[in-house]
Amino acid sequence: MAEQGENGENPLDIDGSNFNPDMYLECLMKCATLRQVMDKEAEIVTQSQFLQSEMQTLVYENYNKFISATETVRKMRSDFIIMQEEMNKLSENINKITTFSGQISESLKESGNNVSRLCGTRQLLDKLQFLFLLPSQLNKAILEGRYTDAVHDYTHAQRVLQKYGNQPSFQSIQTECSEIIYGLKKTLRDRLLSPETSASELAESVGLLRQLQETDSSLKEIFLNCAESRLDKHLQTLNSIVDSTDILEWVEKCNDTLLADLGIITSCYHEMFQEEDHTDIPEFADKIMLQVFHLFEEVAKRPENIGTEMLIRGLDKFFRKLQAMTEIISSDTMSNKAVDVVIQCINHKATIQYQSIQTQFKESLMKVRQSLASKGSETTDLKDILNSLQVYFMQKVQASLLDLMAFLQNTLSFGLKAWCAKAVADTCWKVISETMANLSDMVKKMACLQTSNNNIPFELLLILAKLCLEMQENGVTTLHSHLVKLLEEAAPGLTLENRDTNSVMVHLSTAAQAALDSEVVFIGQTAAQMLRVSVLARDWLRAPEPRGPRAVCRRVVETLASADSAASQLFPTSIKPSSDSSRRTIWSRAPSSFSPINRIFSERIEVFSPAGADRAALSNGALKVALKALVECVRLRTFGRHGLQQLQVDVHFLQQRLSCMGNDERLLNALLEDALASAQLRCVDPQLMEPSIVDIICERG
Amino acid sequence: MEEGNSIIYGLEHQTRALSPQYESDAIRFLIGTQSLKPQSNQVHVVELEEDTGALHTKVFKHDIGEIWHLRCSPHDVATLLTTHNAYDPNTSQCSMGVSIYKLPTVEVIPKDLDDLSAIQGRNAEDMELLITITPEKPEEEIRCAEWHPTDPARIGVVYETGVVVHDVTTGAAAGGSGVGKARVKFQGGKWNPHQGHCQFAVLQDMHIKCFDTRTDCSKAAWSIDNAHRQLARDLDFNPNRQFHLATAGDDAALNIWDYRNGKEPIFSRTDHSHWVWTVRYNTYHEQLLLTGSSDARALLTAAASVCRDQDDEGARLSQVLEDGVLQSYEQHEDSVYACEWSAAEPWTFASLSYDARLVLSRVPRHFKYKILL
Prior knowledge:
A: mainly alpha, 5 helical Cullin repeat like, B: Methylamine Dehydrogenase, Chain H, four-stranded antiparallel sheet, globular
């Protein structure tokens, strides 16, 4: 039941279309009490009676309506007959009206014709009068310089003249007019070619000529030629004043003359020849602009215009004008070029900055060199020199970064552009990296030079090495963060892309290493050279009994000590070598111990090896170089007994004095032992002195 | 001798002198000892048996003094030249000289048991002394003596102060006398194998000077000034390219020069960590160079970039290698003062250190194949 109810087709719904009386009855019988059935019956009977009476009323009403409609139809039929008659009358009247109007128009036709003929004649006469007056009008206009009016009049008359030109009366007018116009054209052309005409006059003339039906191509050519020659003249003047004016003046002049004219010419050109494909005007403009840019670059690069403030103001003016121009000359290359000009200026500025930093730094280095040369390293404080150099260097770089930030001022036409900010950020970083690279290169070059000649004091190498290391450790990051801060202030939101600080640092550290190596080799070689010459020059075979260490040993010790003390100022060592074991005597090794077996247990000594940035390591390096040379030279000589003993004294002296330098006592002893052992091998009478005597001799000497 | 394995031969005394034996099919090297003890110096002949890798030696007495320099004759297999020094206790003076010896026998590998026992006993044999040349001034030092490349009768002797060409039959000076003329001492020298065999190049301080022995040697035929930043220690001419030579020096550098333009080396490497005492071109493959240094290393270096053009026949002589050190031989424990390529076999070489250790090594096989294939 519920399903049926849901379907809306309940067969038990007495008002539904699917009413099933049997089912309803059945259902009622089943569900209801007798009384309810009785009630229901009564209810149904009343309802059906009510329905029946209602139906009867409806039938009656409809019948009435039908009868009244029939009557109306009948009435309409009689009315239509009257209407027909009236319509017939109307058409008759209309026919009459038509005939009358025909008669009237026929009678008026003649006078109308006369009137129109008279009007025509009148117009013709006007035109004729205009024509007859035309030559004088033209002359008058031309005399007064109203070329535009003259051309306007002439173009009006020309059509007529062409039509009736063969009639004698007009012929004279036409010839006269053509002559005048020919003259006019000539004047206009003259004006085109004359250098005094302004760009607007030029444009006007060309426009007129064009109206006078000059062929377009030749006209365009003339126009372009004239424009070009004018612009060329401007260019020449601008070129000639490059050397005599400052950038502001130059830019003003350029804006007022060349760029203004170029703007007029370009806009005229577009107006006049716009129906054509205007491909060649940007090209032509580009050509001119290229030269302008070229000149501007020249101006910007002149040394007088190096002042940032002035350069920026000039650049700003120039760029403003260029931006205005790009609205007229819709050429991409030109707007790109304008951006390029600014970027180039920034780059140029940066280049000057780091070049000047370099030259200034070189000068200050020169001063340091001189002061080092005039004073000994004992009297000069290397640390002070290093500090002043470093501070000077950092300040210079920071100042130039700040200087470059001027390009990002809000008031400038390009100051807020993203590309400008990017260019400034790039160049700033370039200033930093180039400066560092220059520093590294310079140090490397000096380190290289050092090995070939001895002009550069070793203290300077130490200072430079330290400077490079300082830069690598702190300088680069300091400058980098400084730059980031500056950029944050000047152009918020601009992120400095991750710069390759690593390669800069690698450069610096290799330079420092080169300088250190060079210093070590220089000191070592100096000492080695002394030892070599002294060993090779001496006659060891017939040497007298030793009375003290040879003078060369003192000099070697002095050389090494001065380098050590210089290094100690810049590269302090935390660990001091212990001094208690330094007095150990080293002649315990018998000559027989000079065998491969002994060497197996000792480490291989790399003589020319990279030096560490540490006082002890530097001294070790120099010691190695010097003493290894001693070993090698001793092996080339033959010793007598006293010669050997002299060497013993020397070695002992060196051991005493050098053990306070460096921190590798094993190395020092090994090399000195080697020297003494080699001398023993090369001795014809190998008898060493008593250690106590050696001690005494050393102290006495 | 397998790949990477070197053969070591030890001697009793310090050694500086080493020479390959020329004109022979066997891989033989001669070593001279350097000892100031009288009657203790020897010449060792070392032969490497290629098939078995066995090492055979024969010892000869060299009682005339310690050997500073030794060259085998390129003309005769049994003849050798030693530069020696001896101490005379009576005058307490050292005197140097150059002697030419002839070996009684060239054979080293024992043929029978007697031979074997003789060698095992290391009984030093005698050599035949042909001539001894002594300097005019007795205390004059002799640096080295070199055989003339083509004339067996002539040797060039480098004194401290000059070069003299001696006739080996008479011992007389046969020309090219520059003795006493050089203010800066000479270190050593060599015949130029090109240019008609009359040029002798010497090492003087940092410079290389080459004299024409037909003149009075007052003026150098050509020179390379400042060939090294420190003392120049050795030079060797490229056997195939007539203007190329290699030099080694105290700046630890190996330089190759075209002496027509002696301003800049055409090849330079600093791979050693101390003075380089010797440099040798491989006779067959000029791109292979051997250097010995007092950092106790011998380095095999390829200088292919300067040997890159065509040889005389227009064909590629050999495939080229990358420039640089091919192999470092670290078996030495003291300074390597001499190293030599074998004259008989292009891939074998010997290096000699002061601690009396001879190391026979080979060019690593992959480099060999790279060159050959």
